[in-house]
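User: C-alpha cells for this one?
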Amino acid sequence: MRRLLVLAAALAACGAEPAEFTDEQVFLLDRMSPPQAPPANPTNAVADDPDAAHLGRYLFFDTGLSGSGEFSCATCHDPEQGFADGAQLGEAAGITGRHTPTVLNSAHSWFLFWDGRCDSQWCQALGPIEAGGEMAGSRMEVAHHVAADAELSEAYEALFGPLPDLDDARWPARALPTPDDPANPDHVAWTALDEADRDAVTQVFVNVGKAIAAYERQVVSGRAPFDDFVDAVLAGDVAAQDAYAPEARAGLGLFVGKARCSLCHFDTAFTNHQFANLGFEPRAWLEPLDAGRFGGINALRASPFNAAGPWSDAPDGQRAGRIDVLSNGDNQLGQFKVGGLRDIALSAPYMHGGQLETLEDVVTYYNELPEEPEVGHREEELIELELSDEEKGQLVAFLESLTGEPLAAELLGPPDSPLP
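Assistant:
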C-alpha cells in the first residue's frame, strides 16, 4: 500500500505525461513491477535446495533421459530461443500437437501446459520424458540411467536417499504405464513388476522431475526497461523517465488503457493465471477440434502427479485445494493458457499452435479479431480495438520493453558434473 501511495503521488507531481495515467492504471503499474521471486511450492520439498537445482540443471540438458539418448528438455526448451524452440510445433522424437511454451517464468504458473493439465513444474517436467512425440523415454529407463552413472547416482542419493538395486534380472530395460493401451509392451513390462517395485521406480522418476523443477525455478525474468521507468516515476526522476523509449511509454498507456491488455495480463508475471479462447480458426498443421482447457482439467484430476496426489510433498496444501474448486463445462472448450508477457519478445511464434509469427501479428490479431473459433466461443472481453498503425507499433515497443536482464551464464547450459 505504501508503494502504491508513493506512486500515485509521484505521478500527480510529474507533469503532463505521467498524469495521463488514471488512479486505476496507477494501481496496475504498481502490481506489474518489479519482477518478483516465484511463490513457494511445498509440493516439491527440494524446490529451493541449491544442490537439487544444480542436479536439475544437469538433468535438464541430459539426453540420457530420452529413449534414444538424443533428446533432452533443452531440445524443445532451448535457452537460445527464450527456453522455447522457435517452431510452430514442438519437435523431438516426433512432432507434438501444440507449440512449445517457454519454461521461462513457469515457476509463477498455477497451471502448466497450454491446457493446464499439470499444476507444478515437476509434474510438467515428467510428461515430455515419456511422451512418444517428445523424449520417448520411460521411467524405468530413467531409473537405470541415474543408477548406471557413478556421479549421477551419487548426486541423486545425496538428495533423495538410496536408489533401488537395479542389477537384479527382474527389472526390465524399459517400462512405463500406458493404461489406455494395455497391450503396449511397455505397459506389459510395467504391470509385470510388483507394486513395491513400481513405486520405487516411480519415486526415482518423480525425484528427477523435482530436481529439474528446482533448476527451472531459477529460470526467471530479470529487471526490464519497464521496471526502470516505474522506479523513475516513484522517485520523481524526470530525466530517468525520459530514458524510457517514447514509443514504449505510449504503448504502456495503451496496454493499461485503450488496448485493454491489462484485463488479462497483470501482476508482475503479466498474466491472470487463467485460460481464454481467442477465437482461432483451424490451421493445416494442427489437429482439429482441440478442446484445450476442457480436456486439461480432466487430465489434471486424473494425474497421479498432481498437487493432491501420492507423489506430492504437500497433498493437503493450497495447490492441492485448487483442484477441488475447478469446474469443467462447455465454457472451457477451446480455452488455452493466458501466458505471461515478460521476455515475450524472445519466444516467437505465439499462441498454442504457433498461429502468430511475430508480436506485430499478435497485436494485429487482437486489434481486428479476424477469425471465428473452431471450438467453443471467443471471450466476450475481446473486442475490435481500432488501433492505428502507429498505436500498434507503440504497443509492440512496450512489449519489447519487457525483455529483462539476461540470465546468469551458468544457467544457460549444463554443469560439468551432476555433483555440486
